[in-house]
Amino acid sequence: MSARLFSGIPCLSGGMPSLSGRMKSMVLAILALLWAGQAEAVNLEVAMAEKPAALLSDYGLFDDLGAQVPADGVVPYDLITPLFTDYATKRRFVFLPEGTVADYQGAGLPAFPLGSILVKTFAYPRVDGNEGLRLVETRLLIHQQSGWVAYPYVWNEDQTDAVLKRAGARVSVTATRDNGRLEDIRYVVPNVNQCKGCHVSDDRLTPIGPKVRNLNHDFPYETGAENQLAHWARLGLLDGLPAAPDRLPRMVDWQEAASSVEARARAYLDVNCAHCHVASGPGKTSGLFLTWEETDRTRLGVEKRPIAAGRGSGGLAYDIQPGEPEASILLFRMESVDPGIMMPETGRTLVHEEGVRLIRTWIAGLEE
């Protein structure tokens, strides 16, 4: 629904001078949801319902579901450094109800309006002789009136639709690694409560990935490459950018050889660990804080003793022992697949060999 439809409503015309950006977005979103005859392809009534839809197709997020061709108003995006999930390829999309906008809040997450949907599909290259990807799971984060909710959908064998699995699932997948090696994976679809284990801040469900610092690079849109933040602003999806994107915070790509080992390691830890190891996250009691912005070496784990020295410490003395990767608890836990030891605790069943190699190199180069 176009914002011009609100031009005849006195309190909504003229830019809503008396309302904050977030309040304006919420008001517009609520009106959009109530507006009869809306033209959007996405089914907001289904998305905002208390009970999730049984099928992914019920939301109307894709013009071609199996090919992952987004519907009108659904915008693809990616992350500079993504979360590792057993070597899965990921396809990401964002939807905002027409007439609403996300507000820039600095380097972290924008304030997404009511009705926003974040879509992430997990897939693997086919090994059955067919081209393309085998779709495994599509995960939705929906900003409802009660807050964000997370729903996992598992793809059927025919790749025609995905079915809601609130209790989670395990899917057997054979994947080809970048080095050509075949890998048998027991891919884990998290249940709704496990989603809350990571997607949480101050005890409320929240997105993790689409932070401004992790979106600030070019994306290959059908119309040509463009900076994602600039693209979102041009489409009216993001409001309040204070400067050109090249002057805004930006993380590095953890695989970007031109960047320093430290910058790459810090980016990797921010995305894979800092959603828990942050002052507002589940790992706050550990005293280990791994966000991109953290500058205190002790809070980063350097020569820091663990709060609890149980089996997860491996009998080691420090979270990070400078110059000694094998004496560092952080690396010990990254190299494990034991559920009582491994970190992250969920989201993987394999060791991320390339990520471990990076963190080992970083720790080896740290000075006391």
Describe the 3D structure.
The protein has 2 domains: 3-247, no CATH class; 261-365, no CATH class. 18% of the residues lie in helices and 22% in strands. It is built from 8 helices and 16 strands. The radius of gyration is 21 Å and the shape is globular. The relative contact order is 0.11.
Order of helices and strands: HHEEEEEEEEEEEHEEHEEHEHHH
Q: How does the helix and strand content classify structurally?
A: alpha+beta
- Mind describing the biggest β-sheet? 6 strands, antiparallel
In spatial order, strands of the major sheet run: 3-4-6-7-8-9
The 3D shape can be described as globular
What is the overall pLDDT average? 87
Helix coverage percent of residues?
10-25%
Low-confidence stretches: 1-18, 34-39
Distance between the termini: 58 Å
Annotation field: number of helices:
8
As a whole number of angstroms, the C-alpha radius of gyration is 21 Å
How many domain regions?
2
Give the secondary structure arrangement, pairings included.
Elements (H helix, E strand, L loop, with lengths): L20 H14 L9 H4 L14 E3 L4 E2 L3 E4 L11 E7 L6 E2 L13 E9 L7 E12 L2 E9 L6 E3 L4 E8 L5 E8 L2 H7 L1 E2 L2 E2 L6 H4 L2 E4 L2 E4 H7 L3 E2 L21 H13 L55 H6 L18 H13 L3
Parallel strand pairs: 5-16
Antiparallel strand pairs: 1-2, 3-4, 4-6, 6-7, 7-8, 8-9, 10-11, 12-13, 14-15
